[in-house]
Fold this sequence. Notes:
The complex is a heterodimer of chains A (409) and B (243). With 409 residues, chain A is an alpha+beta fold. Chain A has 15 helices and 12 strands.
Amino acid sequence: xxxxxxxxxxxxxxxxxRTVMTLLMVGGGxxxxxxxxxxxxxxxxxxxxxxxxxxxxxxxxxxxxxFQRDEVHVLDTGISNWQRVAASVxxxxxVRGVAPRIEFYGMLSNGVKSxxxxxxxxxxxxxxxxxxxxxIASGRDLSTNANGEVEALVGVGVxxxxxxxxxxxxxxxxxxxxxxxNGIDVQIVGIVNTGFKDLDDxxxxxxxxxxxxxxxxxxxxxxxxxxxxxENTDKVAATLIPKLxxxxxxxxIRKWVELAAYYKQVRxxxxxxxxxxxxxxxxxxxxxxxxxxxxxxxxxxxxxxxMLAMGTPRAWIVALFMVEATLTGFFxxxxxxxxxxxxxxxxxxxxxxxxxxxxxxxxxxFRVLHVPGLMIGASLMVVISLxxxxxxxxxxxxxxxxxxxxxxx
Amino acid sequence: xxxxxxxxxxxxxxFPLDHSEVTALDHSNLRVSxxxxxxxAGPSGSGKSTLLNLIGCIDKxxxxxxxxxxxxxxxxxxxxxTTLRREKIGFVFQTFxxxxxxxxxxxxxxxxxxxxxxxxERKARVQEALESVGLTARAHHRPDLLSGGExxxxxxxxxxxxxxxxxxxxxxxxNLDTRNATQLIDLMRDLNGRLGLTFIFSTHDxxxxxxxxxxxxxxxxxxxxxSQLEGAxxxxxxxxxxx
Lengths: 409, 243
């Protein structure tokens, strides 16, 4: 067995120029997949973390009723004992903070122009502690002690459409928990650029007490839980479910991935693109390798004839070619892993930026993550494609007529 | 007791060529006893290689019967033919046909690997075979570092290492100079005498025939003379072959 593998190993490097070309081709395929896959992984991670850090959090807690019936009025199904729930959740392992939120909507007016908004009410200090920092384009974030002033952040789109700036006043109109219309005056302290135009055109943020006064309620819509690491989401979610059961009001939780529709769409789209690229690389390696292996078989026809004449079973010839191809795939994968990782490191060091993706106006950093699963997957793919590519040449070699093969020039 | 090792009876082999066929061997007969040293002589295209291929079980006759060590090869399937070749027959080729990525010792070891012998036994047999051909010192050289004569001696060592009943050599000296060709034939003759191996080789080289006790002459696919059957003197057959 050892000698057989030795023969296969030496045959791989028999025609060095051709082997180098094959290894470069296979390695190039692996490196390409690592770079594209590594960039996609970086993009997914970046999108995931930005989705979480811009306010989605890792887990959100709602009342069970929230998902059971259509909301007629804001906070009909809100959490009433939210301080108790928040304290209980905050005491758990891996929990960095719990932020109460009210999600509401209504109209903004400055006396001249009006605009609809999608608002959120937060506790600014808690949000900051949890790292949920809005991207302030001008002005500052909300403060907890506003000396009686009702502060607000608006999106750049809102500011532009209503021709307002930091320091200007606005009136917020919304429907209270009882269904009445109410309004409060606010002062703009900051303009926010979320990176998403549609959101910037509707964005409004005020402090939680301001919103509770506007909506005349002491409830919150939901509690946003921030964790130390995204990877702990499932673990913490599992511990939260029994914990919330004993707090009076029936509760339900949603993990970030269930709430991040945009993230899921992007991931599905780019995963599809990556699979398509993988299939192309697979067939490129397969077709090029079939050609190379057929050439090798043709060149070694007399040698194969000699081996068969000496009584070598035809299955050995098949195995020999398949092992040689598999070894070629293995070495090609190593070349690709080294090349892909080095190239990835070089690109990472270059600080390259890509143009802003659709819907945002922020240039995207080009970075390649070194993903072990991707490395294993890409390597396995080329090894398998080489092994498959060798089947036809191997079978042809094993079926050679000995007398004809020995006479081959 | 019958010591027949090879029995060729009325063997014909034809090959298709365009829309007709060519008869390479035409109702030929031959009987070879164990331990013989036999040359098949004749001009190019006379059917020497075809006859050796048929005796070596790497081709099948169109008609007729060939028996090796009492086994009728026409009754064997491909797998049993492979086994027969592995166990009973050693081959030496005109162009040496060594595996270029293996050393001399590894080339000699290959048939033993196919036979499934243990590493220790393989090592001992390889050493013995290389000693027999005087190439112990060149055991770890690859074929491209060996001379033509050395390569052919490695091929002989490879042919005998499995202790076959029969060694077939197709034009073994065609690519050798006179000195190496004579040395090779002396070596084969020595192995024939010392180990009792049966050698059948094809040649049109007069130098070899001078060292050969039995010469079978083929012309146009037919056995036209056999020094053993005709009782002709060695010189007469030799003269016939050369003419």
